[in-house]
Design a protein that fits this description.
The chain has twelve helices and ten strands. By secondary structure, the protein is α/β, with parallel strands linked by helices. A hairpin with a 6-residue loop joins strand 9 and strand 10.
């Protein structure tokens, strides 16, 4: 039974207090109310990687690259399924909800409980979009790297990896992976001679205070011939996380349109081209987040843009 499994996993813990017992019971009921697929999660996963190409602008249309659910994506989904079924995860989420969530931001909460891992592209998919191979000489700057899960997918394609992150707990997580870690404000202070072959900005432009300024800073950090890879969720819904508050950003990126294709055209023509970038690749991918005891994973729709300095 669940109670026995929990006791065996945590033999030194005293019996949970009544409040925690009630929370565990609710989580248990919700967990087993979930109707699982007859197939393993990674096999049942079905995502539409296509776009309505006829709605893309003449500039964007020939640059569209279609992804697919590859081995790296399936491995992430398999980990999500295993973690969601774990009794230790059930207890950690329950304890964390009681003790932490009221006091810290969602990002810090996830970092402390080793949860909320993200998946954007697999190593092979990054290699395809960036035209790189494993072990190739080169440097990477990953902006807003979070816990480093996605950075680890990118790292095999480079010999030097640097990451930025504003959250203190997430910087600790990044250092555990052995990455050079900077605070966001440190990037502008780097010597002008320090540039990178690739800069990545994965789901950050809609969560930072000054996205236009960040685009200029990232362009300045590109080595000659370097590439910037941006992942952005559409529909576009920007805010800045400040503890438990969600604030309006000081700078705005305007993204117009009633569908993904119109959003893409608007972002390219209204933001990327005026910022001095040339478009190389556009693709669509599921932005996957490790789930919880209610659901194995959560999903948003990411659009990938690979650009160079024009």
């Amino acid at each position: 039974c669940l109670d026995c499994e929990v006791c065996c996993s945590f033999p030194l813990l005293p019996p949970p207090p009544p409040m925690l017992s009630r929370l565990l019971t609710r989580l248990k009921l919700k967990k087993y109310a979930f109707e699982p697929s007859t197939l393993p999660l990674e096999e049942a996963f079905d995502y539409n990687y296509s776009l309505q190409e006829h709605l893309l602008s003449p500039l964007v249309q020939p640059l569209f690259v279609k992804n697919h659910t590859d081995a790296g994506t399936k491995e992430f989904l398999r980990g999500c399924e295993e973690d969601s079924a774990s009794c230790k995860r059930l207890v950690l989420d329950a304890v964390g909800s009681l003790l932490l969530r009221a006091w810290v931001s969602r990002t810090t909460f996830n970092g402390l409980l080793f949860r909320g891992g993200m998946h954007v592209l697999s190593t092979q998919q990054f290699a395809t979009h960036l035209q790189r191979t494993r072990g190739q000489e080169g440097s990477l700057l990953d902006i807003g790297a979070g816990d480093g899960g996605v950075t680890r997918c990118l790292a095999p394609l480079f010999t030097q990896v640097c990451a930025t992150e504003s959250d203190t707990v997430m910087r600790w997580r990044l250092r555990q992976h052995g990455f050079e870690v900077l605070q966001p404000e440190d990037v502008a202070a780097l010597p002008t001679t320090r540039t990178f072959d690739v800069v990545t900005c994965l789901n950050v432009l809609d969560r930072c205070d000054r996205p236009r300024t960040l685009l200029r800073q990232m362009r300045a950090r590109l080595a000659p011939g370097g590439r910037l890879l941006i992942a952005l969720v559409f529909p576009f819904s920007p805010f800045v996380e400040d503890g438990r508050r969600k604030l309006r950003p000081a700078e705005y990126i305007v993204v117009e349109g009633a569908n993904l294709e119109e959003n893409i055209n608007s972002f390219v023509n209204g933001t990327l081209l005026p910022a001095g970038f040339a478009l190389e690749v556009v693709s669509r991918t599921p932005y996957l987040c490790q789930g919880d005891t209610h659901k194995p994973y959560y999903l948003l729709h990411d659009i990938i843009f690979v650009v160079t300095a024009a």
